Amino acid sequence: MPNGITFDMVDLWVQDEARFGQQGKTTRMWYKKGSRPRAIKQLQFTNAYLFGAVCPSKDLSAAIIVPYVGIVAMQEHLNEISKQVPPGRHAVIIVDRAAWHMGKNLDIPKNISLLPQPPYSPELNSCEQIWQYLREHYLSNVSFSGYEDILNRVSKAWNKFVNSPGRIKSLCSRSWMVC
Question: Taking phi first (over 0 means left), then psi (-120 to 50 degrees means alpha), and beta for anything else, what does residue 88 get?
Fold first, then answer.
């Protein structure tokens, strides 16, 4: 913990990224019994990556959408998270051990600390539930016309998710995360 920061000034965040695009997910649909519903399955490969982070206790979020993953994208995401951390607070962000999350070239903002989760433990990162929720409620059984359409729909889905009162807390809180 940086000097001068006490535990009552710390907010716990979770961070992850997911790929969304034309090779999307096909999900269940409601149809008349006995009929065979048709679902869209695209064969193109255009996609984008949503870097998202949430603080369940404060109902805060930060996200960027980029065409790639890597140190540069992670740096941009950390900068965006840093802007969302309230003044006088410090964010401890749970990250998995992807190379771009732990890169030596990252310039971690002063109001952020990274906390890597144990290897091979995606169940500890509640961001995984966000990706599942976005796919099930907004981004399944759809056809994207191209990259701009992917950006627009993923952005709308994220905004609907974070602007739904209490959704972040209900989906991403864990009993061990209480700060």
Answer: left
